[in-house]
Amino acid sequence: MDHVLVGSVEQSARAVKRPHQVHRLSREVGGDVFPRGRPDIALAVVRRAGRELNADWVVDDALPLADRLTANFARMAVHARAPSDAWRIHRRARAADQPDFDEVIDDYLRAITSSIALNHLGTPDPPPLVALALAGYLTFGVTVLDQARVTDAPQAPVTQILSDTLLATIQAARTASDASR
Description:
This protein has a domain at 55-179. It is built from eight helices and no strands. Helix 1 (9-17) runs antiparallel to helix 3 and helix 3 (38-54) packs across helix 5. Helix content is 74%, strand content 0%. By secondary structure, it is mainly alpha-helical.
């Protein structure tokens, strides 16, 4: 459904602010794509934001883990520092506590969790306790990145905090997961 929004997240977000233009937008792509109007456009924008945040996540096991971590943290830092439209939309959608948004956000978080697990565990399907710990880590990471922007903290130590915390989180979750078997 959201594939018809061919512009950037910013352009898509502007469409949400102009619901009176929904019909024109739908007619331009040749169909009634957003039957509920503004709510369907908002969902499409949130999906696109998640895809932009998850795009190009480095999971190439030919690269050392440290290089993958550096690349992935750098990508997220770029989104958080600006902040990008995708970052803002994701943050607002997560805070909205609306069932439609929650489902889309959960899909995005599962995709990120799978990518992290693939990098650290060699599988996109982490054990339940590891998935739980990674969900908590992602919330922590978003908060740290937001606070780094607000306080203008230097990126290198912020990345070190995120990296060390991620490694400790995975180790603790693996230990707990192994102990619960």
